[in-house]
Amino acid sequence: xxxxxxxxxxxxxxxxxxxxxxxxxxxxxxxxxxxxxxxxxxxxxxxxxxxxxxxxxxxxxxxxxxxxxxxxxxxxxxxxxxxxxxxxxxxxxxxxxxxxxxxxxxxxxxxxxxxxxxxxxxxxxxxxxxxxxxxxxxxxxxxxxxxxxxxxxxxxxxxxxxxxxxxxxxxxxxxxxxxxxxxxxxxxxxxxxxxxxxxxxxxxxxxxxxxxxxxxxxxxxxxxxxxxxxxxxxxxxxxxxxxxxxxxxxxxxxxx
Length: 256
Known about the structure:
metal-binding, two-stranded antiparallel sheet, Retrotrans_gag_dom, Znf_CCHC, zinc-finger, mainly alpha, zinc ion binding, 9 helices
């Protein structure tokens, strides 16, 4: 019996690979587009192209730098030939004494760049040019920026514009906050005046208005023997001899 089990087990193990092959053949094919494998990368060609691009960029930068230097030299020679020396000295002094004043930061920077052409010994150094620009700003801006070490003019200009915008926004909010309470007080005063006017009109329209004696110099009347105001004697007119009211007699006067 044992030998039969061993003999029968061998063909079963041999059939297992065949079953797996059949299952793979019968498995459904994947649906959709199948992307092809990426092509192999030739790193040698890639590095060669990168080096060529860097060399071209360096060559272009050098050409632009040479063009700018040639342009500056042309401007210098043109001014030396056609602009009088005393005009150049005067423009240089204008640049040295330039401050922002009432100009905006952008307006100040435009004037600074225009006059700096007459002081090449200062603007040749980027740090000195940046320092000169910072010292010409308004004191309120300069105190905010002096703590930062701006190495280029572009950095200083960007920071100055940002600080100027924040200061303008703060001043606008401050003005708006100062106007709001005044408007509130004006409305309260207006309501109070309207309320007092209404109360006064109601009091005038009421029948319970106390008697008001006519103003004038008091004199003694012979009929009643009293000194009181008015042009008519209270006794003759039938008024109260205590307060002068015509609503009651002296015996009913509330002042007694």
